[in-house]
Write a structure and sequence with these properties.
Keywords: ATP-binding, Helicase, Hydrolase, Nucleotide-binding. Residues 297-418 form the Helicase XPB/Ssl2 N-terminal domain. GO terms for molecular function: helicase activity. InterPro entries: XPB/Ssl2_N (IPR032830). This protein has five domains: 5-100, no CATH class; 114-286, no CATH class; 297-378, no CATH class; 382-445, no CATH class; 486-554, SH3 type barrels. The chain is 41% helix and 15% strand. It has a five-stranded mixed β-sheet with strand order 13-14-12-11-15. A five-stranded antiparallel β-sheet has the order 19-18-17-16-20. A hairpin with a 2-residue loop joins strand 3 (182-185) and strand 4 (188-191). The longest helix is centred in the N-terminal third of the chain and has 27 residues, at 118-144. The chain is elongated and about 110 Å long. The protein starts with a helix and ends with a strand.
Length: 557
Amino acid sequence: MSTHARPLADQLASASDAQLERVLRERAVRPEVGWTDFFDAAEALLEPASIERALARLSRAEARALRAAAPDDRVRLGDAALGLLDVDGRMLPPVRTLVQDLPEIPDAEDAPSAPASDIDSARAAERAFATIGGLAELLLAARTTPLALVATGALSATEKRRLVDDGDLDELRDLAELADLARPVERELRLTADAQRWLDASFPERWAHVASHFAHSLASGIRGAAASDWPLLHPWDPHWPARAAHLRELAWRIGLLAGGPDGGWTVPEWGAALHTGEPFDSSALQALLPSEVDRIFLQNDLSAIAPGPLQPSLDNRLRTMTEHDPAQASSYRFTAASVSRAFVEGGTEEGILAFLQEISLTGVPQPLEYLVGQTAARHGLVRVRPDAEGGTVVTSADAHLLAAMEIDRNLRPLGLIREDDALISRVGAEAVAWALTDARYPATLVDREGRSVAARRARTADADVQDDSGYDVLIARLRSHQGPDADAAWLDRELEAAVRAKTVVIVEVAMPDGSRRELTLEASGLGGGRLRGRDRAADVERTLPVRSIVSVRVAQS
């Protein structure tokens, strides 16, 4: 047993729950680890692999301070000190042993990147606009149907084809998670509750949300460092250079950095808050971008054209009733299937036409008005309602439609079974309604009383995400074994360890006359409140009451 575990156990016991949780996270401790008390925790945290994980998290300045410290020097590490330094701020010996073998720390500039030129700023603004637009496309796709993930957590190849992969979908997915707009749940990328509000917000609000969350996710040392130095900021973490390069790429994509590795990294005016920690101001960014519009041109060929970037809230609603090609951001097309989707989501003929009339610069063309009217007339021919057992009942006044659905191969996953004048499925009503709509049947979702209700395809992450930290349970267990007599508990552990290892120990015993005597024993057994072992000096077997033992230490060979 390490002689340094006892003082560290005392440090852990006196730490706050927040400090303990940080240490456990930084050391990558499994929440279900079988530690019983703080002595177990201290011994595990003093293992070389655990110490190496803590050293990898240190900033360059903290690493330099440790590397330069003499054995009796006190070091300031802030919250990182727990588990690396003793109560006086000196390095724990096991830590010193590892630090001495770590590589030298390279020099780097301790200054932020230079301001960007006008040309670089303009390019950064265009790039930020394209990135936020691409992120919105990703979230809109996930709102319709959660995106499938492979075992590694990356988007599947099928999803990348569906989303027209332009090479940066993985970066967009990372930004969505960093901004807390999407979250992986059960091998799916699902939207969070904040995503819809973000989608309805203007570009400046969208950008500021993403930039703020991105900056908040960065390690504190990055905020004041030049972008070229980011890979050097955690010198003892072998994985950090690749991570830093990825973060720098994300910062470049959202316009917080300009230039590049060849010409040097620079910072546009709106990116300065990345270094200062102040709130992001997008006014200078917005001045370089086209203004959002709130009107469109509706054409006789059932298409719609926006004369500029359409306000996000209008764009989102227009998409519910049109087909949209991300490659042509300002172009929309109305089809019978797309208008049917709007009805399934709760739209009405009057509501759709009123919305189009409000935003159109050219009125509502007659072909489009006919399409909406005809779709409304057909909508409701197929009625989908939940039954009392969680399944679904599908009915229709048109017997031919029911017969067609019954034999439709595309609907086989629904398991539709004829029962009198209806089709029965064990699948939920909303899923059935969307499956029928996608198969071009005029389905409408109703409740058990027959009232029309909107069908929602999206599943948000919030309801499914559980708090996976688990550290509250572990910390509570450690606290529960934090007894008043820590000295006695520690002595018991030392004796148990000595017996297990058949270690030769020096035991200090309190004698009846008040004096103390040291015995060198080869520990062989512990039980009934007594320690058994062979006395090396007298070559006899001794049995000592544990209550009389004052201290124990390993004999030096």
